[in-house]
Structure formats: structure tokens, C-alpha cells
Design brief:
Layout (H helix, E strand, L loop, with lengths): L6 E6 L7 H4 L8 E5 L9 H6 L5 E5 H9 L4 E10 L6 E4 L14 E4 L5 H14 L7 E4 L14 E3 L6 H7 L4 E3 L10 E3 L4 H12 L4 E8 H6 L1 H20 L10 H17 L15 H4 L4
Parallel strand pairs: 1-2, 1-3, 6-7, 6-9, 7-8
Antiparallel strand pairs: 3-11, 4-11, 5-9, 5-10
Helix pairs in contact: 4-9
Length: 297
């Protein structure tokens, strides 16, 4: 393609400090013409990314991607972390109903948006590995179906009634704890399950030598095969956008690159497999193609 005929590329990408320059058009390219999906939040379109394969490239939750890959969806990972955060602050309880600790959850009811979302998978993995939680002894109360249509929720997952809302159920005592992706609400009754989540997160990092990835970038296989140069160009633009954000004093973002994320992905795969979200341990290398292993080369 010439500069006068850039490759059209339909993309799902949220607006964050690290992506702002790309999404708002500050960064432009002669190689690709980006058409961003008009959605309020990228996670609202994750089903479209894995069920309909609607996007040429997409921001996608890592657990959704791993499950999609395990079910043979033609998606390929790029070593570009868009969101990475420790999940310890995102499980909460109603302190008005008495104390609750991470070791008290067997036999309890825990509410969450959907069983297989990434934040919930990380939280369950933490509780399972570090605090002895038996996932089969919890009643999980959900509000949405899985992103990946082929996945069937375990038998101890129950759907809340349509008129219910997660935090209302928590305050009413209908669930004992809740996994809330946007953290603690401004209600004095709602406390984090971990009294000091930042210290717990630091200890987890020391034990695992990893970060907890939320979202990365994927490419649809057929688009990648037709236009590898477009995929490399988007990776380059994402790197440039991150640099511009850093120059403006933005927070330090998770590193790009396969080797920089190998351990992070190994832990994500392990948590996914141990929770029966995938039926075999995927290898890190099979998540990528020859093009996407080193897209910046």
C-alpha cells in the first residue's frame, strides 16, 4: 500500500493516557487508516471480538483471549499490555454484617459480573493459591454470560435475577462478598476483603515474579496473514503513544515484548487452567505468530 492508499483497519481500543495520542488522531500513519469502534467501554464489545470476530485488531481481556484460543478462535496475541494491575483491591464485603477474611470464604456466596472475566479469574486464583479457597464450595452469583460462547459455567454458578444489582445484593446480605472491577464504592460499609491490598499485592509479586495482566492486543488471523505490515504498524503506534504519555508525566505502564511478559502469561495460563477455564495448559509461544512474537523488529 502507498501513503495515498493506507490499509483500512477496524479496531477496538479504549482511551487511556497510554493510548490517547493514537485514539485522538495525534499520531497518524501512512500505512494504516484506523477506524475505532464506537463503544463506551471496550469490555462491552469483547463478545463481538471473540464470537463475531468483528475487529481486525482489538484490545481484549487476557482470560477471554486464552479461553477463545483454547476453543480454536483465529486470534493471535501481540506482546502489548494495555492494562495491567494487581487485583487485590477488587474483592469487597459489607463490614456492617461483621468481619470477613480471605480464609472465611468456603461455603460463602460471592457476586461477580461474569464467572470467567479476567478480574474475577485473578481474584479466584489468588484466593485458591494463597488462602486455600475451594472454588467448588463457593456459590458464585453472576449477572452476565461468558464472553466465549462455548464455555459453560460450573454447576455452582447461579445467575442473579434480572432486577438485581451487585452492590445492592452485597449491602442486603444476599451475597457475602463481591468482585467489583472498578474497586470500592464510596460507601463506608464496603471494605476491601484484604485489609491492606497494596501489601498483599507486593507479597504476591514477590512470590510469583509477575504482574496480573488485564488487557492485551490481539489480531484476527486472516487480517494478520493479509496485512502483517499493518499489524506491525499498530504495534509501533501503540509504543509511540505510550512514550508520549510518559513524556507528559504519565504513570509507568507494563512493559511491551514477549519475553518481558512471558512470566506474566505463564501465571495467567496457570490460573486459567487450574480453574478449568481451559482444558489444557497452553504454551506462551503458541499464543503468538512469527509476526507478532517480535512485531517491533
Amino acid at each position: 500500500m502507498t501513503a495515498s492508499h493506507p490499509i483500512p483497519l477496524h479496531m477496538l481500543l479504549g482511551t487511556y493516557p497510554s493510548t490517547q495520542a493514537l485514539v485522538d488522531g495525534t499520531l497518524r500513519s501512512d500505512i494504516v487508516e484506523l477506524d475505532f469502534a464506537k463503544v463506551a467501554r471496550p469490555n462491552n464489545a469483547f463478545k463481538r471480538a471473540v464470537r463475531d470476530l468483528e475487529f481486525d485488531m482489538a484490545e481484549l481481556a487476557i482470560i477471554t483471549f486464552l479461553m477463545a484460543k483454547a476453543h480454536g478462535k483465529p486470534l493471535v496475541l501481540l506482546p502489548a499490555v494495555i492494562i495491567g494491575r494487581f487485583q487485590h483491591p477488587y474483592i469487597v464485603y459489607n463490614a456492617e454484617r461483621g468481619p470477613l477474611s480471605p480464609r472465611d470464604l468456603n461455603g460463602k456466596r460471592i457476586g461477580l459480573r461474569s464467572y470467567s472475566v479476567t478480574t474475577a479469574t485473578w481474584v479466584r486464583g489468588i484466593l485458591q493459591a494463597d488462602f486455600g479457597l475451594d472454588l467448588g464450595k463457593v456459590q458464585w452469583v453472576t449477572f452476565e454470560e461468558p464472553h466465549v460462547a462455548e464455555f459453560v459455567d460450573p454447576p455452582n454458578v447461579h445467575r442473579a435475577d434480572n432486577d438485581k444489582e451487585l452492590l445492592q445484593m452485597l449491602l442486603a446480605g444476599e451475597v457475602d462478598a463481591a468482585i467489583v472491577g472498578d474497586g470500592v464504592k464510596a460507601d463506608p460499609r464496603i471494605h476491601t476483603l484484604f485489609p491492606d491490598p497494596l501489601s498483599e499485592a507486593a507479597a504476591w509479586h514477590d512470590r510469583n515474579q509477575a504482574i496480573q495482566i488485564n488487557h492485551m492486543i490481539v489480531a484476527r488471523q486472516d487480517f494478520l496473514e493479509r496485512h502483517p505490515e499493518a499489524v506491525r504498524e499498530v504495534f509501533s503506534l501503540l509504543e509511540q503513544s505510550r512514550r508520549l504519555a510518559a513524556e507528559k508525566g504519565g504513570k509507568k505502564e507494563p512493559a511491551f515484548g514477549l519475553e518481558a511478559n512471558r512470566r506474566n502469561l505463564e501465571v495467567a495460563i496457570d490460573y486459567c487452567y487450574r480453574q478449568n477455564l481451559i482444558d489444557r495448559r497452553l504454551s506462551v509461544d503458541e499464543l503468538f505468530s512469527d509476526v507478532t512474537r517480535t512485531p517491533g523488529a
